[in-house]
């Protein structure tokens, strides 16, 4: 059995290490110190007593981490995509952190993952709870693909290989990620790599890599030479923000002051746990980050597609709705695949479609969302270690 598991690993899925001029550029970054990229504030991958916290959380969420039925999807047709958005900005959440955004006539695809598993293997690892709403063959060619970091649920070998075959597609990524992309068939002249606070014009839009509080690795060890980022994308009329993965930190307000306001923010609000509070946002922190950013409408992402954390699969949606109501934040929680234009969305009204397939709908049915979940305080846990993410 062990031999079968290891033989199923795709060596190419581990990507490649930055080398040559790419590595020289990594080492020149002001955010690269003592052999590794550093987080904007002191950060640890896990908290004290992480194992015990995880075991308790696993027991509490037993039986709740998968939907009780098929997650309702919306499948957009080629004709749907062919119609230009009335307002110039349209988005479709395709599950997890994958979002297809049409902004001022340019198509941008964030963190594309079409594989069944977010894993280096087709035989094991977290499998999808729902299909991708749009078949890859039916996906309109994006002009630009944006990668936030190199974890398997954000950077997928098979999807990148398929996108690389679409010759007009360009790629934008943080420093070091280009090594993975080149190994998988993306020509170097199609890749733009940026350090935090760097901007580049690509396909008529301005892409800016902004800080995030996370880490990178595609193996058992954090190498330190690959950067993670959140992203600001600005066109002539609209601008959007994608968080990638991040814990809460004051930098969201800095990003908002420098680059906001935003018509749409796409913020990680799922796959959180008490055991790792510094590298993933919980829903209340995600809504606070949106407020810090000066966001107009918030789309919670990174939930409902893969079972990656010990919470009920629909809990991020419920808690995001409650937190947004408490702060007066505009929120959209569409069925995966639905096309929406932020300017046409009533962000105060959210249909709780996820309750249709909740494993325990009685958890949410008795009271209104705003009454059920108190907004947790959002702060930066004190740490005594340095700001590098330690090796795993």
From TrEMBL:
GO CC terms, sorted = cytoplasm
> Gene3D superfamilies under this entry?
Ribonuclease Z/Hydroxyacylglutathione hydrolase-like
Q: Matching InterPro entries, A to Z?
A: Metallo-B-lactamas, RibonucZ/Hydroxyglut_hydro
Limits of the Metallo-beta-lactamase domain: 107-303
What GO molecular function annotation could you give as one example from this UniProt entry? hydrolase activity
Keywords for this protein? Hydrolase
- Positions the record marks as coiled coil are none
Q: Where is this region: Disordered?
A: 24-50
Q: Where is the composition biased (Basic and acidic residues)?
A: 24-36
What this protein is called in its record is MBL fold metallo-hydrolase
């Amino acid at each position: 059995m062990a031999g079968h598991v290891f033989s199923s690993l795709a060596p190419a899925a581990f990507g490649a290490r930055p080398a040559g001029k790419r590595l020289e550029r990594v080492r020149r970054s002001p955010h690269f110190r003592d052999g590794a990229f550093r987080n904007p504030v002191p950060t640890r991958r896990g908290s004290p007593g992480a194992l015990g916290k995880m075991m308790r959380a696993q027991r509490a969420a037993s039986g709740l981490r998968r939907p009780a039925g098929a997650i309702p999807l919306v499948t957009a047709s080629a004709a749907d995509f062919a119609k230009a958005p009335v307002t110039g900005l349209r988005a479709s959440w395709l599950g997890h952190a994958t979002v297809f955004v049409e902004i001022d006539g340019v198509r941008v695809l964030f963190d594309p993952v079409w594989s069944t598993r977010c894993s280096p293997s087709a035989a094991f690892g977290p499998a999808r709870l729902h299909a991708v709403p749009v078949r890859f063959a039916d996906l309109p060619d994006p002009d630009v693909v944006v990668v936030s970091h190199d974890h398997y649920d954000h950077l997928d070998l098979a999807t990148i290989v398929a996108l690389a075959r679409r010759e007009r597609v360009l790629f934008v990524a943080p420093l070091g990620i280009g090594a993975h992309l080149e190994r998988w068939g993306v020509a170097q002249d199609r890749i733009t790599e940026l350090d935090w606070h760097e901007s580049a014009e690509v396909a008529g839009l301005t892409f800016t890599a902004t800080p995030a509080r996370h880490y990178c690795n595609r193996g058992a060890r954090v190498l330190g030479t690959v950067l993670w980022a959140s992203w600001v994308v600005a066109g002539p009329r609209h601008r959007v923000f994608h968080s990638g993965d991040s814990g809460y930190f004051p930098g969201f307000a800095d990003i908002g002051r420098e680059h906001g306001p935003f018509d749409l923010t796409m913020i990680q609000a799922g796959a959180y746990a008490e055991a790792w509070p510094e590298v993933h946002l919980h829903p209340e922190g995600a809504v606070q980050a949106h407020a810090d950013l000066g966001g107009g409408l918030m789309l919670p992402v990174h939930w409902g597609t893969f079972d990656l954390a010990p919470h009920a699969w629909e809990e991020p949606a419920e808690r995001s709705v409650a937190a947004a109501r408490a702060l007066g934040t505009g929120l959209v929680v569409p069925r995966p695949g639905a096309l929406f234009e932020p300017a046409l969305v009533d962000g105060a009204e959210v249909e709780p479609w996820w309750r249709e397939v909740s494993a325990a709908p009685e958890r949410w049915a008795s009271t209104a969302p705003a009454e059920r979940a108190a907004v947790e305080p959002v702060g930066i846990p004190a740490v005594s270690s340095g700001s590098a993410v330690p090796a795993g």
